[in-house]
From TrEMBL:
GO molecular function: glycosyltransferase activity; nicotinate phosphoribosyltransferase activity
Family per similarity comment: Belongs to the NAPRTase family.
Pathway(s) per entry: Cofactor biosynthesis; NAD(+) biosynthesis
EC number(s) reported in the record: 2.4.2.11
SUPFAM superfamilies: Nicotinate/Quinolinate PRTase N-terminal domain-like
Annotated InterPro entries: NAPRTase_N, Nic_PRibTrfase-Fam
Taxonomy, superkingdom: Bacteria
Annotated GO biological process: NAD+ biosynthetic process via the salvage pathway
Domain Nicotinate phosphoribosyltransferase N-terminal positions: 13-130
Annotated organism of origin: Salmonella enterica I
Name assigned to this protein: Nicotinate phosphoribosyltransferase
Keyword Methyltransferase: no
């Protein structure tokens, strides 16, 4: 990795749980269906400048696989069927399914392949885009700046509840959040 020192994703389970449920349904009911999907940036951001770094991360994703402890954990859940989990254990991201280009500053991403595989790209790919964009736009941002920004947003969000009563944050802000608000920050 040259642009972004390390992979953004570290586990095949760096996704939303519903994606695994949806993938299992596609695996059982639409196994051979081929699909195409495209990334659409809803804003005016010129994200195309990140295309090379995104491609680098996409290429790194081919090395992700379901670890044995992850397989065992999923196997203990009542809603995943053994045939799906055995298939997922062998699943690898295929970077050839992803075309990433910079079209005059516009980021174009097109995914093609079997639905049972393409479905897994959505959440991790959006996470990669978000992580890279924020890394390059705010290279010196640390945990303290992130907590300050989060606190500011939460003050705006919690300042008024349904009855328009003020809901204060603790005196020390989010440095020691109340038990109902679990905020965990860590460095990789």
């Amino acid at each position: 990795m040259t642009q972004f020192a390390s992979p953004v994703l570290h586990s095949l389970l760096d996704t939303d749980a519903y994606k695994l449920h949806m993938q299992q349904a596609v695996f059982h009911h639409y196994y051979d269906v081929q699909v195409a999907a495209e990334f659409r940036c809803r804003g005016d951001d010129l994200l195309g400048i990140y295309a090379d770094a995104i491609r680098e991360q996409v290429d790194a994703m081919q090395h992700l696989r379901l670890q044995e402890d992850e397989f065992q954990w999923l196997s203990g859940l009542p809603f995943f069927k053994p045939d799906y989990l055995n298939w997922l254990r062998e699943f690898r991201y295929n970077p050839a399914q992803v075309c990433v280009t910079n079209d005059n500053g516009k980021l174009n991403i097109r995914l093609t392949g079997p639905w049972r595989e393409v479905i897994m790209w959505e959440v991790p790919l959006l996470a990669v885009i978000s992580e890279l964009v924020h890394h390059y736009r705010s290279p010196n941002a640390g945990v303290d700046q992130a907590l300050d920004a989060l606190e500011s947003k939460l003050v705006d969000f919690t300042g008024v509840n349904r009855q328009s009563r003020y809901v204060p944050l603790p005196p020390d802000g989010l440095r020691h959040p109340p038990p109902f608000l679990s905020v965990k920050c860590s460095r990789r």
